[in-house]
Known about the structure:
By secondary structure, the chain is α/β, with parallel strands linked by helices. It folds into 2 domains: 5-106 and 178-473, TIM Barrel (Alpha-Beta Barrel); 490-561, Sandwich (Immunoglobulin-like), CATH 2.60.40.1180. Helices cover 27% and strands 15% of the residues. The strands form 5 sheets. An 8-stranded parallel beta sheet has the order 11-10-7-3-2-1-13-12. A 5-stranded antiparallel beta sheet has the order 14-15-16-20-18. Helix 5 (182-198) packs parallel to helix 6, helix 10 (353-365) packs parallel to helix 15 and helix 11 (395-405) runs antiparallel to helix 12. It starts with 10 loop residues before the first strand and ends with a strand. The mean pLDDT is 97. 1-O-alpha-D-glucopyranosyl-D-fructose (TEU) binds next to loops. 1-O-alpha-D-glucopyranosyl-D-fructose is lined by residues 60, 63, 100, 150, 170, 206-207, 264, 266, 336-337, 396, 424.
Amino acid sequence: MTDLWWKSAVVYQIYPRSFADADGDGMGDLRGIIAHLDHLAELGVDVIWLSPIYPSPQDDNGYDISDYQDIEPVFGTLEIFDELLAGVHARGMKLVMDLVVNHSSDEHPWFVESRSSKDNPKRDWYWWQPAREGLEPGTPGAEPTNWGSVFGGSAWELDEKTGEYYLHLFSKKQPDLNWENPEVREAVYAMMNWWLDRGIDGFRMDVINMISKVLPLPDGRVVAGSSYGDGSAGFINGPRLHEFLQEMHAKVFAGRDAKLTVGEMPGVTVDEAILFTDPARHEVDMVFQFDHVWADRGADPWLLMPLQLTNLKAIFNRWQAGLAEVGWNSLYWNNHDQPRAVSRYGDDSPDHRVASAKMLGTVLHLHRGTPYVYQGEELGMTNFPFRTIDDFRDIEALGQYAQATGQEGRSPEEVLTVLRARGRDNARTPMQWDTSEHAGFTTGTPWLAVNPNYPEINAEAARADPDSVFHYYRKLIELRHTEPTVVDGDFTMVLPNHEQLYAFTRRLGDTELLVIGNFSGSAVKAELDDDWSGAELLLTNLATAPQDLTLEPWQAVIYRRV
Ligand code: TEU
């Protein structure tokens, strides 16, 4: 047994807009989630993390919040939220909310006030700056720094009313909050306490390693082929980040029962993560790092790089080793920002989809850390067959496409090739529940097209088939709950230089587990120094056990010996 409950927990992420629509408007909602809670209870997950459900103009699908203490009417009401929370708790699960406080919506009353005049009391709640010295506001290069926004274009928007620019690392409808201002921080902590008092069990913190900025805001490194500088050194892991997280902990979490806190931190290093997740420092319980989902990304963002398995293993090994003594890992292949893992690191063709989805699940869930399952991953849902840019809805895809094919002169086909493989809308197509029209997601018109493969890939079929990805994930989750070695065992990578096999052991006391995943479409024999003959085969994803450690295409195995 471990002291902190989230160490043995599995988290399931819901993207409410795409999960289940109860009222037929084409968008998922809270009643839709309530209707499917038994699906999650049957899967056996411990925690549900909800992507943002607060009032929002939906410029970035809810990551642009205009009221932190209410529910977006399209999704429901606070009363329905309380019903959902009760339904989650009644099934023995917990509920974690998304905390998006690096930025708000430009329609949040705080920003509406802030932009109203230079001497408004909330002016300093956001990052306002005049044009670069000697340049007229609005002229080329007059932005206060050369930073580009994640979604394309400059990270600065000129506000005509006062002639000053405001900072937005994401869309111009997502102005960055100024965490230097103590009133901002107090307002955020009060809001967090309000939700915790309502009964929620923790927060997933959106881009929380961007809240502290380097002062004065510095120009970024010039990037060849890009119209903007890379400002990340000025806002990733800024000088006051640890201080802010410790203050948040003291003012929000101290004195409460243990909650789950996970900080999303693009660009975080292992050394920093040790500090963020050291329980003695009281910052966060775990972080989402990005190294393994950037493993197939090269220096040129518009070039598809094939995955090199040795590289992927080196990344995980570094994280497992780095947080072995102090701190804790989060484990994920998928979320609402990533393409579907089975299409990316597995093989989503009819012959190998089920096996490779299960293999990926095996490898991930047997690492040390808290696994996250993203809606549809438990069905082996795949990427969507996008054709033209008109098929995409994501502000990131549209913004980056405009910048790349516009001032940067890339060909549309070059950019589309990468968006089809990596675009975030791959994860956001509606959840596939059954074989009825629109996969049972809605009786109306879905906001984003349903993947045409839903007659084959859907929850109803998966629950009815004992060999489905769903039932296999159920077993993986159950194994974490019943075998302490999965939670607490130490981790040793085996065969680090093998290009097809991902192999490692876990050990706790006298119990040892051997996990091997075949990341290829050919049969491969694992040549181990150690003799594992006679070990018990706990789980494999194919009908037959391997002979002499020869794994069939995309096969995964877990052996145990005592
Ligand atoms: O994502 C942060 C982030 O870094 C993303 O930009 C991500 O790396 C990229 O989209 C991958 O293609 C968080 C949320 O998860 C994302 O949905 C939001 O759009 C973003 O913050 C702004 O809130």
